[in-house]
Amino acid sequence: MNRALALLARLFAPLRPLLVLAPTERAAWVAAGLAPFAVVIAATSPGAWVVAPVLGGALLVLVVLDAVLAGRLADWELAVPSDIEVGQPSPLTITATFAARQPARAEAALSCDPRLAPEGRAILALARQPYEDGWRGEAMLAPTRRGTGIVSRVWLRWQGPLGLGARQADFAPDRRIRVWPDLSAVRSPDLQTFLRNAQIGLIARRIRGEGTQFEALSEYEPGMDRRRIDWKASARHTRLFARENESERNNQIVFAYDCGQAMCEPVDGLPRIDRAVSAALTCGYVALKGGDKVALFGFARRPQIMTPFIGDARAFHRLQSAAAGLDYEAVEPNFTLALATLTARLQRRSLVVIFSDFADPTAAELMVESLGRLVNKHLVLFVTMGDSEVEELIAAPPGDIATLARSVTADSLAQQRKLVLTRLRRLGIDVLEAPWQSIGPRLIDRYLTIRNSEAIG
Fold this sequence. Notes:
Blueprint: H1 2-12, H2 16-19, E1 21-23, H3 25-44, H4 51-68, E2 72-79, E3 83-85, E4 90-99, E5 105-112, E6 121-128, E7 135-141, E8 147-159, E9 165-171, E10 175-180, H5 184-187, H6 189-197, E11 208-219, H7 231-237, E12 241-246, E13 252-258, H8 261-264, E14 266-267, E15 270-271, H9 272-289, E16 293-299, E17 303-306, H10 316-324, H11 335-345, E18 351-355, H12 361-374, E19 379-385, H13 388-395, H14 401-426, E20 430-434, H15 439-452
Parallel strand pairs: 3-10, 13-16, 13-18, 18-19, 19-20
Antiparallel strand pairs: 1-9, 2-4, 4-7, 5-6, 5-8, 6-7, 8-9, 8-10, 11-12, 14-15, 16-17
């Protein structure tokens, strides 16, 4: 019996679009307009009540006839990108061709993962192609989280010439779209021009005269830094000689991500962790071009990922793939376990860039304690994003008591935040706080400053 039903379903599958008929919104308005007339007829001439069902039947016949005249769906196609980046709009296109008659209007709707579109749905109005046979509609996907999103179902609906009846077909395309971290800053012309012209640019070169690694002795000339004079060598040769050092390379840079509750909160539409991932990957690309090694570390309740150190810019895609696997966890992060694990895996002094956030000094207590132990062995840079909503509440004019209370509370939170950041600075931790729009460029500037100061090795 089941095999027979499956065979019938397979035989009638091509006819499915022909069998699904539905009234349109216009038909509903026409039926609503005829209802008062039916009420008036029933009140004034009870014997003529038969007119009401006749009108309803006539409307139903028109709906069915109009749906039949709408034409038959011959083919359809869904074009979606297989890979997109979080926060970057990407087009989704649906095309449909109809046999025999052309409909008066056509539209489409799709159901997808909520990370791809608001509320997990999108509606497209199809327009007839002027120089081609078929109808085409486009919608923009704006993913808000990393991961794999699925377009699970697509509905097509097209109307007849009267606009009263329509045909409808639904399909299950099961298209998977991988949402990657945003790398638009890495591809930006400004960054590429900077890398091409900077000393750490696309061409590897040895930098003499700076750094801490001894390279050679040269005769002192006016204008050189007097602190570089080698007095022992000068005494042997009875002339002034200066040391020429080579800039250190092969430093280890670790970007550590807090994937807990605070970093999952959105800032201007995207989670803080995604803003942090984009900034860190941009800075990591610059570090790889400069000859340093980069690794990623993610944690929440427990460590999530720890990549090996990558020293070749051609392997940058490995960092991108690892960052795409960072999960969102609505829990408080375990800094003690995470930073102890990180310290055990680092075999030499490194620059550890930690992206995190906190709500109050009590929640930040364990974080400060763990960072205090980490800074004893490594150079630590703590990166956090400014909260634009709190700043807006502080700057809001006190028009009423409620606004004033919110402003005072927001200012209290900001002051507590400054106290925690001050404690971190007193522990010897470098702190970078900036709006998310400028966190990437400022992180690159801070990295270059630390690198040029030879404080990592």
